[in-house]
């Protein structure tokens, strides 16, 4: 998992800023509503995907009141007005960097047009489904701070498959199907996961010059600003790149 750490740190800092703007709250409420409809139930006990998203939302400090109000409306049969479906786009950024874009859309044509516009504007190109996803591996991801020996031991005992020590904390990687179980086990031992999610980790990374890397980062930022986009993953290495998170 080496090389993923800096991306993850940037994402956490952006999430902290987005939480203040309400973007993270909106993102998770949209995901929760979609999971409730996809799973056929707004009852977390009967819908594992919904239960996992609620846990992830709480780890991201989404207010419990917002979540409970949404679940109450959905349990009463009240729709959220728009229904979203998951859409994934794949392509390349400048320098041959692979890009995966995950979105929740209520209008596939609009979302595809917006994503394609960003790719074209920033010198990238959209590809067919499966064109770059083979270069990534789905992994569960948990962030714990601070990084202590006790946290590492607890993570290994809980089922972590890899650990990465970072300056500000500990990155825990798991099987994607086990990430929420591992997070729950860590909570039971007194640790508080500050971020729990299923992510896409590149199997190999591409190194670019500072100038070329900045072109890719601008494209990623533009994609992340699209309302329908939930996550953007790339195989760009940031090891020798200066980035303002």
From TrEMBL:
GO biological-process terms attached to the record: regulation of DNA-templated transcription
Molecular functions per Gene Ontology: DNA binding
GO annotations of cellular component type: cytosol
NCBIfam families: PRK00110.1, PRK12378.1, YebC/PmpR family DNA-binding transcriptional regulator
Top-rank taxon, per record: Bacteria
Family, as annotated: Belongs to the TACO1 family.
Alphabetic keyword roster: Cytoplasm, DNA-binding, Transcription, Transcription regulation
Annotated signal peptide: none
Domain TACO1/YebC-like second and third intervals: 84-236
Ranges of residues in domain TACO1/YebC-like N-terminal: 5-76
Pfam family, one: Transcrip_reg
Subcellular location: Cytoplasm
InterPro entries from the UniProt entry: Integrase-like_N (IPR017856), TACO1_YebC-like_2nd/3rd_dom (IPR048300), TACO1_YebC_N (IPR049083), Transcrip_reg_TACO1-like (IPR002876), Transcrip_reg_TACO1-like_dom3 (IPR026564), YebC-like (IPR029072)
Protein name (record): Probable transcriptional regulatory protein Mlute_02709
